[in-house]
Amino acid sequence: MKSLREKETVIINDLRNKLDSASLSILTDFRGLNVKEISELRNRLRDNGVEYKVIKNTLVKLAVKDINLSSLNEYLIGPTAIAIDANDTVSLAKTLIEFNKKYKKLEIKAGILQGHIIEANKVKDLASLPSKEVLLAKLAMTLNSPMRGLLICLEAIKEQKES
After folding, report:
1. Three-state DSSP class for 163?
2. Quick check: 37 and 103 in contact, CB under 8 A?
3. Which of 127, 124, 51, 136 has its CA nearest to residue 90?
């Protein structure tokens, strides 16, 4: 059976690895939310493949010390839960901002965007961006439009030469 110190070391190492490799992590203060509201938030995040954990501030401080995120310590006051998304930055930000609109008690403290600490207002800015899928669709349409025009021109030239 592992001692408390060994369990904490495992938690610290796991958190360090996740924060270091995540595209976006967001620190929240969940005070004032009841069990039903927190469960709803966890379910929404889980549906998007996001991990949401309450972790002691001292363990977070130890985890970020070696990955150049020590300035995160100023946000580690009061209860802290961390949402960690390894894949899609926009959906995590959108989910938390939408939840915050419904339940004002959820406070976004700060975020870690690809290894850089961002303020809570920047998380809100991220939430206003279109999703990755929408951006890729817009890019495909933009790239497709000139090609379609070129095909029409080539077809016209071909018909002109044939007649």
Report:
1. coil
2. yes
3. 127
Using one digit for the tens of pLDDT, what is the confidence trace for 75-124? Answer: 999 999 999 998 877 889 999 999 999 988 999 999 999 889 999 999 99
Q: Which helix (H) or strand (E) holds 42?
A: helix 35-47
Q: What is the pTM of this model?
A: 0.78
Residue spans per domain, the chain: 4-129, 130-163
CATH class of the domain defined by 4-129: alpha beta
Instruction: Report the half-sphere exposure of 149 (CA within 13 A, side-chain side).
Output: 6
Q: What is the per-residue burial (b if ≥16 Cβ within 10 Å, else e) of 17-43? A: ebbbebbbbbbbbbeebeeebbeebbe
| Nearest residue to 71 (alpha-carbon basis) of 112, 121, 106, 14 | 112
Enumerate residues 6+ apart whose C-beta is below 8 A from 10: 2
Q: Which residue has the tokens 């401080």?
A: 61
